[in-house]
Design a protein that fits this description.
6 helices; 205 residues
């Protein structure tokens, strides 16, 4: 099983598209959220988590740190869990981007959109799917934590549920929410999305 954790809140969450710009750290609220997520994951049992991985962005590693500490693991940085490369849109205010004519394409048909000078949503999903497959193969039958970003986690959920990438904007992944997907020989089972509740009851019916 993979527990996808979106990084905690930052000073720019909901206002700016930070992308891969360096130097963005968790806010005080984000650090609180990370500690809460760590407690929820640790409640699964001290030996339940086989590994903790994180995107190379500071905000992801700062979220992964208390989780790793709580389960007695170290944070392993995995480049393929990185945020989507927003290219020239990196660092732009969302209020400005929403006025662009191509913003509707981002929301309604993201599979056809490429960020100027950056990555396409399809490339991002392919990268994320390959990363997950590698993690599952590396830790067969185990549970791992993957701290990443909203769009990458939404792309993983869309792929696991068999939904077209154009539907992925309908998925909500909040700061420090936990999304659980069980990968089986018969295909993935989406156990929880955007969860902020107790994880102990997670099991396929």
């Amino acid at each position: 099983m993979v527990l996808f954790v979106r990084h905690g809140q930052t000073p720019t969450t909901g206002a700016v598209l930070p992308g891969r710009a360096p130097g963005l750290h968790l806010s005080e609220r984000g650090r609180e959220q990370a500690e809460q997520a760590a407690a929820r994951i640790a409640a699964l049992g001290p030996k339940r988590i086989d590994a903790v991985y994180a995107s190379p962005m500071e905000r992801a590693q700062e979220t992964a740190s208390p989780i790793a500490r709580a389960v007695g693991r170290r944070v392993r940085v995995l480049d393929s869990l990185n945020e989507c490369d927003f290219g020239k849109w990196t660092g732009r205010r969302l209020s400005d981007l929403r006025r662009r004519r191509d913003w509707r394409q981002v929301q309604r048909t993201p599979s056809s959109f490429r960020f100027p000078g950056g990555e396409s949503f399809a490339e991002m999903q392919t990268r994320m799917t390959a990363a997950v497959q590698a993690l599952v193969a590396r830790h067969p039958g185990s549970t791992v934590v993957a701290v990443s970003h909203a769009d990458t986690i939404k792309a993983a959920v869309s792929h696991a549920s068999g939904a077209h990438l154009d539907m992925f904007q309908r998925i909500v992944v909040s700061p420090c929410s936990i999304t659980a997907i069980l990968y089986t020989p018969d295909g993935p089972l989406v156990l929880a999305v955007n969860s902020t509740a107790d994880l102990k009851a997670l099991a396929p019916s």
